Task: inverse folding
């Protein structure tokens, strides 16, 4: 994952422009379906102060971080910068005039002479080292580009390839001013605006920015704390989203395992809706690349996104995940993966809610139709296998279907017992799925399924013993989670029934296929009256229940 020696990409040729239509606000209902079946829509949300204010309460005041009014109210000393030959006379005159105007009319001044506007501001960012002047220009550009939408950022296209190349200058500013959180955040937002407006980056600039993003996201994979303030890191994600508007960079990001970083964000930032939104937004951008799309339609990516969808109430997060799923629904086995992750039941539940965004309703209907059709066509065991391999088990009817187990139990030992081995991995104490501890619900279902395998397969206990799984099952007898301890006890009972009870001569009494009757205790010893122990730990069981089947069979004999 994002190895420290890895640079995402070095471009030697101009980047291709993303063909997806551009809209300014991705959370607004403005998407349209293209002929290819992929959603086109908003590619923005860069520098959205209001969204940060809404979502950042846990992390302190976002407005206190941006300090916009105070910064724009302090006018740099352009005279001293001209005297020091940091800006020329033309830039001095234009900047002085600009600063005299009220904030609400400054955008109009920029439009009157866009060439002077672009060159004067870029000259400051390129040639001035004074922190106050840099912060004033970066803040003003960020706010003007937000206020003027893509039109303001698009003015800078005329400077591409010149000595005032916008992205080249901003990339240098970002990498040179890494120690100033606020200036860094403003610069990342400006870069995001420029990418959103369709400006192209030269190879060296892309290398700087991609390597910068890699360094700034390493903490996510390492499990350490972010060294940046939250608003600053969100701005870095804005920059990443801008970089991911190009197919070549999307492929490079995937090849550098960038999606693992995004998935880690989903797992670590569950209480930060803005972070969830921007991570999902990056996934959505990646889904427009044909070379990347099939790699996204995999269980390791989709299952965590479904988990986020189940847990969030924020419509903009929900809308973005659904839009991603719509983009991927006809890719690879996406329909089957959604079905296995329990998406059909989730979508059915979501359909009953009232949504303010009509895109959510449309996407739910579209996904439900395709997933429901796919369920009918899927092999039952294929569906079950994908669910097990995902590590995301749900109490679907298939787990308790006697017909399923009788018909498919032999498939559990095919392919070197692949499915059985994964089930046992899930019940191993301390096991993890995608870096997180196995959920209690998943553990209970896995214990249940191991027990059903033992019950239904003629040599079920033999396989369990060969894989050394019995000790793991016994460990969970003392689990403080009632659902887990209950399934562990039931699994132990099925192991005993499979033995059929030991005869005095050491022979076995055959157990019925329905699991009726009880046998001798496997994997433990009796101490006193009704106590099953292993390794010093014990759990109280009813001796009469456990031995009842053996006594009945002896009576019949």
Result:
């Amino acid at each position: 994952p994002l190895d420290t020696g890895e640079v995402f990409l070095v471009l030697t040729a101009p980047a291709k422009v993303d063909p997806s239509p551009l809209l300014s606000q991705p959370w607004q209902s403005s998407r349209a379906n293209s002929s290819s079946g992929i959603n086109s829509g908003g590619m923005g949300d860069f520098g959205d102060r209001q969204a940060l204010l809404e979502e950042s309460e846990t992390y302190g005041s976002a407005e206190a971080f941006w300090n916009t009014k105070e910064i724009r109210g302090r006018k740099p000393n352009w005279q001293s910068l001209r005297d020091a030959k940091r800006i020329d006379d033309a830039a001095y005159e234009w900047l002085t005039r600009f600063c005299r105007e009220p904030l609400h009319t400054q955008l109009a001044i920029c439009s009157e002479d866009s060439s002077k506007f672009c060159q004067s501001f870029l000259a400051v960012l390129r040639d001035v080292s004074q922190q106050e002047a840099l912060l004033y220009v970066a803040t003003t550009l960020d706010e003007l580009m937000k206020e003027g939408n893509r039109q303001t950022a698009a003015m800078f296209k005329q400077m591409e390839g010149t000595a005032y190349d916008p992205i080249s200058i901003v990339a240098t500013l970002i990498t040179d001013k890494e120690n100033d959180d606020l200036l860094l955040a403003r610069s990342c937002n400006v870069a995001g605006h420029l990418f959103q407006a369709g400006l192209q980056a030269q190879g060296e600039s892309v290398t700087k920015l991609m390597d910068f993003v890699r360094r700034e996201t390493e903490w996510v994979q390492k499990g350490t704390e972010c060294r940046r303030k939250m608003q600053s890191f969100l701005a870095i994600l804005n920059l990443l989203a801008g970089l991911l508007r190009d197919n070549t960079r999307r492929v490079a990001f995937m090849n550098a395992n960038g999606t693992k970083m995004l998935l880690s964000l989903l797992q670590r930032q569950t209480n930060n809706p803005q972070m969830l939104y921007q991570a999902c937004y990056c996934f959505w951008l990646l889904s427009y690349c044909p070379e990347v799309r099939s790699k996204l339609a995999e269980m390791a990516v989709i299952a965590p996104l479904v988990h986020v969808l189940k847990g969030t109430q924020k419509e903009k997060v929900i809308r973005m995940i659904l839009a991603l799923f719509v983009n991927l629904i006809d890719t690879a086995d996406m329909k089957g993966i959604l079905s296995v992750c329990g998406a059909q039941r989730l979508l059915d539940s979501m359909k009953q809610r009232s949504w303010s965004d009509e895109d959510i309703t449309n996407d739910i209907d579209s996904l439900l139709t395709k997933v429901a059709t796919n369920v009918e066509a899927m092999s039952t065991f294929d569906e079950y296998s994908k669910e097990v391999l995902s590590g995301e088990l749900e109490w679907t009817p298939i787990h308790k279907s006697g017909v399923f187990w009788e018909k498919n139990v032999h498939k559990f030992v095919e392919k070197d017992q692949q499915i059985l081995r994964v089930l046992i991995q899930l019940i191993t104490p301390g096991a993890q799925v995608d870096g997180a501890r196995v959920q209690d619900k998943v553990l209970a279902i896995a214990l249940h399924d191991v027990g059903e395998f033992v019950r239904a397969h003629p040599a079920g206990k033999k396989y369990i013993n060969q894989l050394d799984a019995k000790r793991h099952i016994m460990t969970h007898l003392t689990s403080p989670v009632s659902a887990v301890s209950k399934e562990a006890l039931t699994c132990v009972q099925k192991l005993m029934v499979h033995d059929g009870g030991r005869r005095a001569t050491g022979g076995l009494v055959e157990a019925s296929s329905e699991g009726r009757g009880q046998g001798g205790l496997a994997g433990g010893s009796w101490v006193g009256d009704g106590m099953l122990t292993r390794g010093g730990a014990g759990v109280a069981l009813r001796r009469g229940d456990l031995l009842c089947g053996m006594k009945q069979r002896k009576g019949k004999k």
